[in-house]
Write a structure and sequence with these properties.
Blueprint: H1 3-6, H2 9-13, E1 15-19, H3 25-30, H4 32-47, E2 55-58, H5 73-83, E3 87-91, H6 95-98, H7 102-115, E4 118-121, E5 124-126, H8 131-164, E6 176-178, E7 184-186, H9 190-206, H10 209-218, E8 223-226, E9 236-239, H11 243-251, E10 259-261, E11 264-268, E12 274-278, E13 286-288, H12 298-312, E14 335-337, E15 345-351, E16 354-361, H13 363-368, E17 374-377, H14 378-392, H15 395-439, H16 445-476, H17 483-501, H18 507-517, E18 518-526, E19 529-536, E20 541-547, H19 552-555, H20 560-569, H21 575-584, H22 597-607, H23 612-618, E21 622-623, H24 624-631, H25 635-644, E22 649-653, E23 656-659, H26 671-678, H27 681-688
Parallel strand pairs: 1-2, 1-3, 3-4, 14-18
Antiparallel strand pairs: 4-5, 6-7, 8-9, 10-13, 11-12, 15-16, 16-17, 18-19, 19-20, 21-23, 22-23
The structure holds zinc ion.
Residues 337, 339-340, 342, 361, 373-374 line the site of zinc ion (ZN).
Amino acid sequence: MNAQTKVTADHLRKQAILYVRQSTLHQVKENRESTALQYDLKRHAQELGWNVEQTVVIDEDLGESAATATDRSGFQRLVAEVTLGRVGLVMGLNASRLARNNADWHRLLEICALTGTLIVDEDGVYDPNHFNDRLLLGLKGTMSEAELYMLRARLIGGLLNKARRGELWVRPLTGYVYDESQRLVFDPDEQIHSAVRLLFETFRRTGSAGQVVKYFSKHSILWPSRFFEGKRAGKVVFGRLQRGMVLNILHNPRYTGAFVYGRTRTRKGPDGRMHICLLAHQDWKVFLPNAHPGYISWQEYETNQVKLRENGHSDGKDRHKGPVREGNALLQGLVLCGRCGLRMTVRYSVRKGHQISNYVCARRGIESAGPMCQCIAGLAVDGAVGQATVEAVTPAALDVALQVFEELRARKAEVDRLRRAQVERAREEAELAQRQYMLARPENRLVVDTLERQWNESMARLAQAEAEYSRATKADGILELSTEVKERIGALASDFPRVWKDPRTSARDRKRMLRLLIDDVTLARDGELIRVHIRWKGGATTSLDVPRPHNCFELVRTPAAVIEEIRVLATGQADDQIACTLNSRRYRSGTGKSFTASRVRYIRFAYGIESYGQHLQRSGWLTLPEIARKIGVHPHTARIYAKEGILRAVRVNGKDLLFQPPTGPLPCAHPAKENRRRVPHGLHSSDEE
Ligand SMILES: [Zn+2]
């Protein structure tokens, strides 16, 4: 049976699909001949009778492997089109282009057989409904899979043999280089060598990868990396040590001096994707201890692994984005940092017996021992977002949403009507062309040929219009809402706030409800405000500004009014008097206590307010020794003068006195006493008695 007899009018009415694929981007770039050959098959379809317009090229999978269909959107589209019966011919350079996996290949053959689709490769045309063709195609698929298997087995087998002998070249780790006889030795560069030693030593001391990063950062020690490929091969660059690097080094058994190969296994999961899993030590393919000098012993390596595993519990993947958890932070798993764009995590603390939540962006800080990006108190933000959510589900908001939905539906229906009219028109034209062809007299060859061509063309236009229609309809996804559904949406307006505010609703349930409505929340601190941007499901956004809550020290800070009062009072009163005045005016400190002289003094110090004494001294008042020196008397005498009212003095701080300098000569209060004082002590002692 030759190729032409397999192709029928029915096949020709449908489209011909050319599937083009190359395994890797490298092949796409280098192996252009093969790609050109694949595109060349298009001409083959025209020789078989298909129009140019009917031939569709699917080349979305350039650079994708055929080992699995999961990541090949082009292959999936091909299968979908064949399943819908829209394809008369599938073209590929050989079976391996279509599938390297027998299951995928046989499924495609099965569907092609059911929908009567032909398959073409460079060797010929096959009809999967014919037993011989199907057998041949099946064999081609098996061979293709076997070819892949053999290729892989030969490559991996060679690698494994070399690895078993310990001769496989693997990229040397930081701290190692290959010598002339291709053996791994310590890096001769002393700086690199000691940096690696220091890393292990610091971990031994601190027991934490984060602390190692902090130590390196604090002492400005840079981490070396050596290039092994490219223009800069052999060069060493120094950069900041990151936590990921430390973990990689600590987890790598090659630093014990062992040659290790095959520590991981790749396995295809039920979703068709490859999963890499780490194997236990006893399952490693090759393990040759003491193959090269080691930085640490095997025992130390194992101790490190245990320590890292323990540390890992507090910083596991589960803390990033994941399912709803028990804590009371409403936005757990939904918050993004408005400054750096990373996901923020929740940190809980207990204050006065209450659980307090904070949203923190600490990832960069942890990675490179830098400061935390930002930390935002959870309570105020949670309240604002909760309020916004309750407001979003009000009767008015739902009414508007339903109206908009109706409007969209009406608009889509109108567009759909227009699209359907286009298809109808194409169908009418095709039918007209068919009638004209049927009516033509067979002996009039020239007319018949023209009419046949016109009929074929109109059929092609019809097929195109139909495909366009179904594609557009699928993209639009027209929805209908029944009255019952509308009523249920209306009831939501009253149910939702009730459930939300009910104290019996658990934090977990509230978070679940929130996740049905909100995609994510971005937080950014801006001075005294927290800017909150909520992204709702469906793409709408709401922006809120929440005042920043006070820190714990701000909460106990003395009220600003009291500080102003002290500032005014201090110009005319000592600290104990100020305390009395404040208490009589019923002022209280930040912690709610009454004022004492020491409390007032502390506040003055903290806010740099001058005391009453300092005020007086600045305007020329003198201390006791100063006034005594100025008027030439004993300080004790000056004190008596003050008592007698000869000198003007005030008490400023406990016992301390300040004196106003006398403007004129001092009146003599007690001349006798004064004279006695002026006489040198020893001379008049006997006279007195
Ligand atoms: Zn951040």
